[in-house]
Specification:
Layout lengths: L6 E6 L9 H11 L5 E6 L3 H8 L4 E9 L7 E5 L18 H12 L5 E8 L11 H15 L21 E4 L1
Parallel strand pairs: 1-2, 1-3, 3-5
Antiparallel strand pairs: 3-6, 4-5
Helix pairs in contact: 1-4, 2-3
């Protein structure tokens, strides 16, 4: 799909795996009042599907959950064009091939957008049949409100109030 001139936000995850639904929740919240010129989509996070969604887009923001050494609810920002993403996700990932694979494949095929921002909400509960943990639910509301208000995360690796040289997200999601 062509989305030139717009910002495409893709929230990814699985409703059935607790905090893994963080990206989906941000997309749902933003859909109610999207910033002007933004298109909001929800996806499972499968690599080829992600690439097909962002082909032709200038700016793409992907929101996903991640297992990391930061506290649950921490929002981490990565430059998808430059970040070194994990070679593979842990067994708990709900994405068959996932976001990291999508970025590597799109890079190899010349299908990356001009700008690719990866926003990861650090989770703590990946249990089947549970909803978002309180910390992740609060973080998704906070992130959606900031994005709706036109505030775009600008820090190199972490947002808000986390050191840029801190631990990287690993496992589920990124």
């Amino acid at each position: 799909m062509k989305t030139t001139g717009t910002t495409l936000l893709i929230g990814i995850g699985s409703e059935a795996r607790g905090d893994d639904a963080a990206g989906l929740e941000v997309a749902r919240l933003l859909s109610a009042n999207p910033p002007p010129g933004w298109r909001i989509e929800q996806a499972t996070g499968e690599a080829t599907d992600l690439i097909m969604r962002w082909v032709g887009a200038e700016r793409v923001i992907v929101v996903d959950a991640a297992q990391a050494d930061w506290p649950a609810g921490t929002i981490v920002r990565l430059d998808g064009l430059r970040a070194v993403l994990p070679a593979q996700t842990r067994q708990t990932s709900t994405h068959a091939t996932g976001l990291a694979t999508a970025v590597r494949l799109a890079r190899a095929l010349g299908l990356l957008p001009s700008e690719l921002v990866l926003l990861a909400v650090c989770g703590e509960c990946w249990c089947l049949g549970t909803g978002l943990s309180p910390a992740v639910a609060a973080a998704t509301r906070h992130l959606a409100a900031r994005l709706t208000g036109g505030e775009f995360p600008a820090a190199a690796h972490a947002w808000p109030d986390r050191p840029a040289d801190g631990p990287r997200p690993t496992g589920s999601g990124l």
